[in-house]
Amino acid sequence: MALLTEAQRHSLNRMNGRAFKHKLGDQLNIQVYTSAAGSGGAATEAMTLTGLAANDVILSVFQSTNNANDKPLLGVSTQAANALTGVWDADPGVGAIIKVAVLKAAVD
Fold first, then answer.
1. Could you tell me if residue 42 is inside a domain?
2. How many domains does the structure of the chain reveal?
3. Which pLDDT belongs to residue 42?
4. What is the DSSP pairing of strand 97-103 with strand 30-34?
5. What is the three-class DSSP state of 68?
6. CA 78 → CA 44, 53, 65, 81, 85, distances in Å?
7. Quick one: pLDDT at residue 108?
8. What is the Rg, in whole angstroms, of the alpha carbon atoms belonging to the chain?
9. How far apart are CA 38 and CA 24, in angstroms?
10. Burial of 63 (0-12, 13-18, 19+ CB in 10 A)
């Protein structure tokens, strides 16, 4: 597991502070998922993220591995169990990998 950067630690501390303020306590559960490499073919692609739930709250998304056509990730849409649709301005080609940080729902 990679160490967090100073900016990431700062962001997590802020989120934990907000969770404490709103009395979320141990219910705060932040997870990061890495997609399987995309296959390309269209400007939108359903990326496989094993463990992602349809009701997870997305905190951030970024493209961690560039794609064959060197297209930047513009955003995401359509969240489902184990999948999230990535949006590019054109066919990104093969190989794109995205990372998604989410707030998981509390499990009682």
1. yes
2. 1
3. 94
4. antiparallel
5. coil
6. 10, 12, 21, 10, 6
7. 47
8. 15
9. 36
10. buried
Exposed/middle/buried for residue 11 (C-beta within 10 Å: 0-12, 13-18, 19+): middle
* Alpha-carbon distances of 106 from 2, 71, 82, rounded to whole Å: 25, 36, 18
- Flag residues of the chain having pLDDT under 70: 1-4, 16-28, 105-108
What's the pLDDT at 1? 43
Range of the domain at 70: 27-103
The CA distance from 43 to 53, in Å, is 23
pLDDT of residue 103: 86
What's the pLDDT at 25?
Answer: 56
In a domain, 45, yes or no: yes
Domain-embedded: residue 18:
no
Residue 2 is encoded by which pair of tokens? 């990679």
Other Cβ atoms less than 10 A from the Cβ of 79: the count is 18
